[in-house]
């Protein structure tokens, strides 16, 4: 499932571990590094003994309330935190959306250049100073 990595990732991880022994957070290489988007992969579904799907709402509400510290802030108790495995996946030779790459062919000029671009004077001054 897709989710946004954030400060409550430990809560999500703990909730999923109630049902799955193996929970891994992953991010495809094709996804921008600056994006907080990631995916969670859960393996080996094993619900708790006596669990019925209708109990899920109450179970998740209790887990969220238990995650708050004494002052009501999530994550103050460092002894309760766990290390969430995170895997960057995908083809390691793929394109990175946050990088620029050299072209194999010469670039083509635009079909219709701007008529009066606001940066025209700055470009002309820069070219004149470079000569």
TrEMBL record:
<dbReference type="Pfam" id="PF01728">
    <property type="entry name" value="FtsJ"/>
</dbReference>
<feature type="domain" description="Ribosomal RNA methyltransferase FtsJ">
    <location>
        <begin position="5"/>
        <end position="45"/>
    </location>
</feature>
<dbReference type="InterPro" id="IPR029063">
    <property type="entry name" value="SAM-dependent_MTases_sf"/>
</dbReference>
<dbReference type="InterPro" id="IPR002877">
    <property type="entry name" value="RNA_MeTrfase_FtsJ_dom"/>
</dbReference>
<dbReference type="GO" id="GO:0032259">
    <property type="term" value="P:methylation"/>
</dbReference>
<protein>
    <recommendedName>
        <fullName>Ribosomal RNA methyltransferase FtsJ domain-containing protein</fullName>
    </recommendedName>
</protein>
<dbReference type="GO" id="GO:0008168">
    <property type="term" value="F:methyltransferase activity"/>
</dbReference>
């Amino acid at each position: 499932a897709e989710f946004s990595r954030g400060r409550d990732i430990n809560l999500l991880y703990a909730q999923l571990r109630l049902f799955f022994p193996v929970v891994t957070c992953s991010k495809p290489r094709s996804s921008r590094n600056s994006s907080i988007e990631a995916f969670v992969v859960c393996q080996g579904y094993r619900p708790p003994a006596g669990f019925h799907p209708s109990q899920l709402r109450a179970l998740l509400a209790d887990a969220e309330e238990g995650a708050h510290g004494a002052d009501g802030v999530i994550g103050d108790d460092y002894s309760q935190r766990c290390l969430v495995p995170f895997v960057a996946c995908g083809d390691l030779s793929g394109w990175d959306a946050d990088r620029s790459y050299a072209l194999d062919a010469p670039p083509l000029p635009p079909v219709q250049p701007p008529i009066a671009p606001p940066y025209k004077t700055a470009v002309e001054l820069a070219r004149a100073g470079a000569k």
